[in-house]
């Protein structure tokens, strides 16, 4: 048998920014155990799929990928990691012919080297999907590549149990990282030339470590000399800390942007979702936010077609969106997730046609609002952090971002990555701004 250390690993990442961050942690764990990394699937001896199961029929997608990879190269070893690990453990145990070789859940990444070694020495499938109440990977420095933007998980897991959401089951209980340790990581990022850091958590306002809460942590991160932009995602509206707004207002390096999931605008639906706030409370919170920071950008997530949602109840969501005038919104059709309370208690009874029609109407509304908001910026000057020296469409353009998280495309001159430049906004679509330096 060959040793694991001679093996090259390719990692494919699905889902949210937390998963992208986890992939960076996994890379560090592999590198420090003498594995090689490759960006080429065909060159790899081991392919790891870092999965997400928050929405859609992700299981089938991953099963197809597994077959595709094995079909292309029979001797490639395949590991399923992340949120779908638990589901796949059952598949693996019940269906011995399913060609996955190892499985590691979100709290088991440190065991990957030994799982792979056991696999190589015994030839038997291996898994570890134990969820931990303590693992925060605080001792691991992620292997980052971006150079300008860095993400840092400040907490893991979730205790909220929104009835539609699988995260509390796949990622386990909430636990927060030591703030000193987070600050040290930010200091190192500054030394490495990073300009912007986004603090990640399933529910950042639940952050708590000894006497430190999320607002304390934000102050500590904001005090790190040289960090130019700080963002965070996502807060829960039920206990959004108002004192944080004062800190955001005072500190120039905390961006004027909040991503705050609404999910639905109707009280009965919100109650059934176990969101623990109502329509008016959400509207009151937004108006408080806008009073303290008038030029703030607010984006959101919405689910349409939650079990039993009627047309009239859906119109409450429409109404909140119109009222708040979000800067952007991610609109999802409800999809039933295994183990969740909704899956156990509420039949998925809104028709696919109704879900589709509701998504279309909310997207139309959002598109109109986004365009209007972007057009209002034409003629203004915005501080743009340069994030890429080419765009998907052209190598004669560079791409950056405003403090309020809007993408700006500029003609290529002699800009440098990580520079912040004042830009005149000259044109706007609903998704991007165009500008000149
Ligand atoms: N169906 C549809 N959307 C969901 N989300 C979470 N669970 C589900 C589900 N079962 C959405 C929520 C959340 C975002 C990350 O994904 O809007 O904020
Ligand atoms: Fe899921 Fe709700 Fe936790 Fe967000 S707060 S991760 S939606 S359970």
Structure overview:
The chain is α/β, with parallel strands linked by helices. It has four domains: 4-128, Rossmann fold (3-Layer(aba) Sandwich), CATH 3.40.50; 144-255, 2-Layer Sandwich (Transcription Regulator spoIIAA), CATH 3.30.750.210; 258-376, Transcription Regulator spoIIAA, CATH 3.30.750; 381-436, OB fold (Dihydrolipoamide Acetyltransferase, E2P) (Beta Barrel), CATH 2.40.50. The chain is 34% helix and 22% strand. It contains 13 helices and 21 strands. The strands form six sheets. The chain has a six-stranded parallel β-sheet with strand order 2-1-3-4-5-6, with helices on both faces. It has a five-stranded mixed β-barrel with strand order 17-18-19-21-20. Helix 4 links the parallel strand 5 (102-104) and strand 6. The longest helix is centred in the last third of the chain and has 24 residues, at 352-375. The structure holds 5'-deoxyadenosine and iron/sulfur cluster.
Give me a quick take on this structure.
This protein has 437 residues and is an alpha/beta fold. It has helices at 17-32, 58-72, 85-94, 112-122, 167-170, 179-191, 214-222, 242-250, 267-272, 279-292, 311-324, 341-345, 352-375, and strands at residues 8-13, 36-37, 46-51, 77-82, 102-104, 126-128, 149-153, 155-156, 175-176, 196-200, 208-209, 212-213, 229-233, 257-259, 297-304, 328-333, 381-388, 397-401, 407-411, 420-428, 432-436. It folds into four domains: 4-128, Methylthiotransferase, N-terminal domain (Rossmann fold, 3-Layer(aba) Sandwich), CATH 3.40.50; 144-255, Transcription Regulator spoIIAA (2-Layer Sandwich), CATH 3.30.750.210; 258-376, Transcription Regulator spoIIAA, CATH 3.30.750; 381-436, Beta Barrel (OB fold (Dihydrolipoamide Acetyltransferase, E2P)).
């Amino acid at each position: 048998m060959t040793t694991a250390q001679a093996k090259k690993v390719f990692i494919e990442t699905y889902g949210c920014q937390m998963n992208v961050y986890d992939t960076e942690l996994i890379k560090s764990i592999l590198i420090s155990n003498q594995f090689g990394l490759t960006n080429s699937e065909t060159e790899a001896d081991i392919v790891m799929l870092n999965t997400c199961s928050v929405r859609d029929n992700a299981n089938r997608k991953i099963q197809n990928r597994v077959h595709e990879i094995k079909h292309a190269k029979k001797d490639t070893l395949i590991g399923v990691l992340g949120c779908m690990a638990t589901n796949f453990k059952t598949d693996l145990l019940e269906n011995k012919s399913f060609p996955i070789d190892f499985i590691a859940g979100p709290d088991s990444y440190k065991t990957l080297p030994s799982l792979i070694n056991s696999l190589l020495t015994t030839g038997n499938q291996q898994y570890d999907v134990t969820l931990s109440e303590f693992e925060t990977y605080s001792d691991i420095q992620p292997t980052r590549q971006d150079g300008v933007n860095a993400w840092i998980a400040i907490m893991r897991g979730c205790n909220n149990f929104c009835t539609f959401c699988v995260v509390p089951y796949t990622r386990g209980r909430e636990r927060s990282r030591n703030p000193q340790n987070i600050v040290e990581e930010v200091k190192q990022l500054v030394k490495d030339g990073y300009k912007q850091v986004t603090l990640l958590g399933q529910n950042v306002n639940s952050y708590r470590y000894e006497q430190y809460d999320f607002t304390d942590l934000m102050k500590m991160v904001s005090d790190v000399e040289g960090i130019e932009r700080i963002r965070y995602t996502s807060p829960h509206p039920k206990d959004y800390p108002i004192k944080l707004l004062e800190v955001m207002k005072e500190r120039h390096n905390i961006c004027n942007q909040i991503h705050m999931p609404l999910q639905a605008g109707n009280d009965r639906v919100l109650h059934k979702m176990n969101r623990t706030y109502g329509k008016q409370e959400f509207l009151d919170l937004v108006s408080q936010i806008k009073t303290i920071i008038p030029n703030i950008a607010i984006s959101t997530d919405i689910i349409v077609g939650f079990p039993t949602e009627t047309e009239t109840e859906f119109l409450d969501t429409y109404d909140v969106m119109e009222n708040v005038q979000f800067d952007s919104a991610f609109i999802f059709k409800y999809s039933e997730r295994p183990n969740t309370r909704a899956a156990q208690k509420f039949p998925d009874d809104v028709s696919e046609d109704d879900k589709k029609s509701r998504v279309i109407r909310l997207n139309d509304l959002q598109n109109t609002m986004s365009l209007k908001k972007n057009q209002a910026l034409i003629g203004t000057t915005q501080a743009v952090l340069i994030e890429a020296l080419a765009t998907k469409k052209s190598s004669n353009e560079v791409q950056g971002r405003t403090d309020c998280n809007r993408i700006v495309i500029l003609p290529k001159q002699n800009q440098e990555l990580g520079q912040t430049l004042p830009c005149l906004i000259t044109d706007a679509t609903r998704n991007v701004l165009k500008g000149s330096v």
